[in-house]
Each structure stands twice: as structure tokens, then as C-alpha cells.
Amino acid sequence: MLRLETRTAPARWLSFAVPVFAALLALLLAAIPLLSAGVSPLQAYRVMLSGAFGSQFAATEVVARATPLILTGLAAAVAFRARLFNIGAEGQLYAGALAAVAVGSGLIDGPAVLMIPLVCLAGALAGAALMLGPTLMKVKLGADEVVTTLLLNFVVALFVQMMIEGPMKDPMSMGWPQSEPILSSAVLPNLIERTRVHAGLIIAVGAALLAEIVMRRTVLGFRIRAVGHNPAAARFAGMSVTRTMLVVGALSGALAGLAGVGEVAGLKGYLTNDLSPGYGYAGIVVAMLAGLSPLGVIASALFVAAVFVGADSMSRALTVSSYIANLIVALSLLSVLLSSVLLRFRLRWEGKPA
Amino acid sequence: MTANPHTPVLELRGISKRFGALQANDDIDLVLGRGEVLALLGENGAGKTTLMNILFGHYAADSGSVWVADRAGVLQPLPSANPAAALQAGIGMVHQHFALADKLSALENITLGTESLWRLSRGDRSARTKLDGLMRRSGLLVDLDSPISRLSVGERQRVEILKALYRDARILVLDEPTAVLTPQESASLFETLRALTADGLSVILISHKLDEILAASDRVAVLRHGRKAGEVSTRESTKAALAQMMVGRSVPSPARTPREPGAPVLELVGVSVESPTVRRRLDDVSLQVRSGEIVGIAGVSGNGQSALADLLSGLLTPKHGSLLLGQKPITRFDPGLFVQSGIGRVPEDRHHEGAVGAMTVAENTVLENLSEPRFQRWGFLRKARIDAHARNAIHDFDIRCPGPHAPIRQLSGGNMQKVILARALDREPQLVLANQPTRGLDVGAVADVHRRLIAARDRGAGVVLVSEDLDEILALADRVTVIFRARLSEAMPAEGLDRQALGLLMAGQAREAA
């Protein structure tokens, strides 16, 4: 009989092995639909790999796509640590982008050293503000934040639609629903010529480093972990669960908001309703793959970005739908959940009792 | 009917069960005779619960077998891991926490599950006749039509026993039956057990209270570390001998020297806390605790102890009345402020409120002192200082753990409690609140906790000891007060205090009436 046994002390190497195992398992499972589409999985993955890392351009494209994923991944990782399940990073991303456009497309102008921080601040504040309601409703009324944050995504999406078709619509857009462009002084500069890698990457990596330090080395990080693991004990010890939750919610929303700023001020230049192909949702997978470790988020964001970029070129080369990328990402989330069982338990074969 | 204690009705033969590295039961043999009360004695973790779960078919034993006498008195093997078969064979159990539906009547609770769902009318009349007979023979009297919510804890326990008897149990297992009873209710339960065993019922009494085992059982089987450490006839045994058999060594009782108390460190004046349930309510409670004394709060569980403890922990704000700490009135009820003003608190439930299981021993030792400059600077943790602090605590309190960086959930209950004590007593608080500080701990750990509380008192702290264990209160407290239905009795000197009188107060009868 196969039995699960609780591990008393999960080995350290396992926490590194689990995400790798989960990623491989996801690729293995995705071979089934590839086979049914009449494509050799080995060839498909070879094409994917060269599509993601085969050229300098491909590799920089992976980095560009990883930039918002790092930030939304951090948004989820920080919040999930406190057991605040923010599923609303997609909405907060759009809120951040909207605020960046509102501030940076002509409301005020100044030198770049002023405009860039201002646009970032506006986006972060908008994302943070969006988390205020769900967090308060959770701690004061017990409303499930999974529901409230998820539903706010649709509210924000419709609000953005309304704004870019109405008050914020660019009169020069020839009827397309898009906002006025970000002023050149507020644009995040490119890091590498002729690629899509922009200064948002520095913000994202810096945020990951900062989050790692906060979590490990500060009183705030200590409180976040304590409240996440056992709110009753945290309250008994004199920590304010409400205040900690509000801070975590604000940080999480701000990180997702920054992802929106990067996309609008670093890449696209103006806001449309297809700014994000679901970076907010993919951030949840990124965070889970990283085991909620802020530094790990960088690696897992690169993996997820590579899957997306690689699947694009695979679908062009082999005429397989690029939705396979979404499938692989979804499968890796399921694999992570499955393999985290292995972190906590040990599988054991047992003979029949005599 | 003749009760012959030598006719076996139940035999456990060579039962072994292993969970991972833990050998929970190791080759245990047990024989229960007809009409006999067998006490199963052992510390927490000795394997009592595992053994009973195997008997009931909740677990499959790794090896060994269970034999139960059939109607003709012939022992038959009980199929392993089959709870329905155990019920069918006449094994009944009364758990420590009752499984009764509050809104249903006693009768409905007793017959629940014994009738086919397809029957149109309930067989109330035949059930009543059968129960009347049972109640008359056993003396287990309850109002069958009263909803459970109106019954006292003792009456609820009677309903649970009747439930088992109604299902024709011939072997009754009682798990810590007196944990929720006053001394008088316990005595009456034991009388009932006598009547039932005279009628042919066999009883297994699980307990770690030596007094009641000596009072109520015919034979005692002692488990230790999963093995049977011994089996004796109750008549030929003594409390000290049983304790030694249970622990494996002799246990010293805490040494207390009389001490003159000093100035008041805590005063409650007419404090009320409102709540729809008694356990979370306080009615006009007044209490004074002086420096250098232990005040014991005795009482049956659920009479307002948690409200009192939460109030003294800073978790509850009173509706009326005032709380003075070292003569200064407290206006803000906040756990963090309470810690800073010098209250050391040991919570009732160490897993729920006392410790963050996933965090390390070191992190748990500073959980409530985190904002002090010695552990943080500009919001950054001073890890080296925290680790040094934890190493000191581990050394001073003799905490057995792999090290300061081990998650605290890996520690045994006793060692986890030592971490919490180390944290609560760290800054020599002038007031110590210990709420059920030894619940679920083994004898050695209990002695450690008691020593720490007495040391705090001797150093001049006032200690509030909330406990449902009367023996613990009488062993430690200088003064005793009883909590009943959210009210506190007058505090009495513990010296020469009469258990019977305390028991009556715990049951809600005034002293004069005794």
C-alpha cells in the first residue's frame, strides 16, 4: 500500500528541487496535448527552447516579458505570505497603468528625474489603494478576499474601458480606444538598444531584492510571517493583525501597480485594454513556483516568460496554437501544488500487515 | 445476574502500532473481565488513545488481534479496522468531548442513528420503555424530553452513557470522564459505574488522575512509551506506586515555603464583560492579587475562565469596572501594552495562541518583545542578539530542541510550553497570568512549570493561576477563588481548604448552603 508520511523536517534541497520538478512535470504533461495535435513533443520543446533563448533578441524578449511577471509575482508572494490571497493583481496592474497615464500624459511636465519617480509613485499608489477595500473588508467583516479582489479585476477592466473610450481617449488615435501617449520625459528608458528591455527591469529586480530583505531581516517581515502563519498568536503577542494586513495589502497592490507602470511607460507608451495578457493571473503561478520566496520570483518569472515566448515561436513553426503556453503555465501551478505535498510528506511503500 | 470478574469479555493480544518513527503501541496485552472496571493509566503520548482507536476499528494494528466475547461468552476475533463491527460486538465509548446535538432532546440524541430512515413513525414508545428500564437499573436519571442545551455537563455525560447502553454496549470505554465534572459529580459517576458493573457491564476508564483511579477501578493497567509498564490490582496499589509506574521514576511534589504577600499588583473592581455565552462573560468580578502570592482560579471549564484570561491578556475590553495594575488604572486594553506594562502571560492553548508553529524557537522567544531596542534597530532585526537570547532561554529553561533555528512545532508540548514560559517570564513581570499552564503535559514537564511559577512568586510576582485541575490549584495557590457562571467567589486562603466545600462552590452552591 502506498502511504503518505509526515516529514518532520523538510530538507533544504527539497525546496529548490520542488519547483524544478514541478516545471519538468508540467512539460511532461503538456506532451499529451502536443502528441494529440500530431506534433513530436521533443521537437516542439526544442523549437520552444531556441525560440526563447536561441538568439539575443529572443532572450531579451524573455527578459522584457519577465519584467511585469516579477512584479505581479512579488505582489502575490508578499500577500500570500500573510495569507492575504490577493487574486486581483491584474486589476491593480491596470489601475497602476491608468494612474501612470493620468499623471504622465500631459497633466504636468518636468525633467525625467522628476517625472519617472512621479509616474511610478502614482501607479504604486493606485494599486495600493485598490487593495485597501478588500483588505479592510477581510479583517473587519471577514469577507473573503479571493472573491473581492477577483471581482475588482472586472470592475477595473470596465473602468479602464470607459476612460479610454471617454475622458482619456486620445483625439489623435483615429477612433481607436486608447489613451493619450505618455510624455517622453516620463518614459522608462530602454536598457538595451533595439530591444524591448526597459528600466522597469531595474525596478522589478530592485523590488525583489528589497522584498527579500524586508521578509528576512525586518520587524515588518517578521510580523507578516507571524500573522500569516498564526494570526491568533500574533494578536496575543501584541501585534496588530489589522495594521499588518493593511500594510501587506498596500505593498502587494503597489507592486502590481508598478507592473502596470512598466508596461505603459516602458513598453507601449499609451494605455489600451489589452495592455496585459494576464500578467496579474500569471503572477500567482510565478509566486507559487517560487515557493513565495521574493528572490525565487525572479527565476520563476523568467521560466514563465520563456514558456510564453517559446510557445509563440513554436506555434509559428509547427502551427500549434500558442494557447499551449497557457496550458503549460496552468499545469505548472497544478504540479507545484502536487509537489508541495512531497515537501510535507514522504511517500512510502508498505507491505500488507502480517 | 452474577458478575464474575474472571470471565474475560475482551482480550487484546500483542497489539503493536507504529507511526513513522514512533512506536505508539508495542506488543500490548490486555484482558477485561466481566463486571470489571479496568483503569488505563498513562501520560499523554503513552499510547492510550491509539490502543482505544484500534479497539474501535479506527486504526488497523500492525500486528496483534482483538477478541470480544459473543452472547454465549465465547471469545471471537474482531475484524480489524471495522468500526461497525466493534459497535455490533457491544463496544461503546464516551469521549471527553461529547457528541450531542444541542437542539435535540435527550431522547432524540440517544435514539439518533439507531432507527431506519425509512420508518414513518419514530418508535418513541419502545425506546422510552427500554430507557426507563436502563435508567432505573443504573441510576442514570435524565429528563428525556429536555433539549441538550438545557442540561448540565454532568447530565450530558449521562446522556452519552445512556446512548452507549441503549445500543446494548457490554463494554464501555470512558475517556477522561471527570475532566469536566465537579468532585461531587465525579463521585456520583463512580457510584453509577458500580451499579452498572454489578449489572454485568465492563468498563475501561482512561485517566491520568491517580485519585480517581484508586477510587473507581478494580484493576489498573499502566502504559508508558507505548508499552505496558505494569498491571496491578487497585486494592494492592498506592498513589506513589502508580505514579512511579506511569513516569518510570519517582516524582517530587513542588516545594512551597509560606511567604508574606506584599503590595497589590493587580486589582479588578466590579469588572463586567458582556457576551451571549457564559464562557466569554464576566459579571461584576472583583479580585486582588498581591506581590508574592499565587491566586488560584478554580472552576469547571466554560464558566468564564476564558473571558477572565483574555481580559488579563489585554484581548478584551471590559464594559464596566476598572483594572488596576500596580495601583495604576489601565485604560487601553491592548496585548502589546499589557506586555510592556509588565504582565507575563501563558495562554490556555499553546498551539493556537502561544506559538507560531512554523516559525523558529528563536523567533518565538521574541514574539512579543520584538519592538524592544535589544532585538531591533531602525526596524531591522538584530539576529545575533535574538539568537543569543534564544540560546540563553534554551539553557535556562532546559528546553529540549534541535537548536534555536528549529521550527517550534517540532517540539514536544512540554518544551513548547517552556519556550512560552521563557518568553512570559523574560522581563521579570510583576504579574503572571498562567491559564491552564500544564494541560496536556507529562508529569516531568508539569513539575518544571510548577517550579517556574513558584519561583516567580518567590521573586515577588503576583501569579494568577487559572486551572480546571483542583489538585494543581491546591498544590500551588496561596489563595483560591472559584469561578462559576461568570462570577468569582470571595478568595479564600488555600491553607486547610476543604475539597468538598470547593466542589460545592464549583457547582454553584454558596458556602453557607454546604
UniProtKB/TrEMBL annotation, chain A:
Organism ancestry: Bacteria, Pseudomonadati, Pseudomonadota, Alphaproteobacteria, Hyphomicrobiales
Organism, scientific name: Mesorhizobium liriopis
UniProt key word Ligase: no
Pfam families tied to this protein: BPD_transp_2
Keywords per UniProt: Cell membrane, Membrane, Transmembrane, Transmembrane helix
Membrane topology: Multi-pass membrane protein
Cellular compartments annotated: Cell membrane
CDD domains referenced in this protein's UniProt entry, alphabetically: TM_PBP1_transp_TpRbsC_like
Recorded superkingdom: Bacteria
Residue stretches spanning the membrane: 53-80, 92-108, 114-134, 146-164, 197-215, 245-267, 279-311, 323-345
Protein name (record): ABC transporter permease
Main location per the UniProt record: membrane
UniProtKB/TrEMBL annotation, chain B:
Highest rank taxon of the organism: Bacteria
Alphabetized UniProt keyword annotations: ATP-binding, Nucleotide-binding
Molecular-function GO terms, alphabetical: ATP binding
Ranges for domain ABC transporter: 10-250, 266-510
Similarity section: Belongs to the ABC transporter superfamily.
Protein name per its UniProtKB record: ABC transporter ATP-binding protein
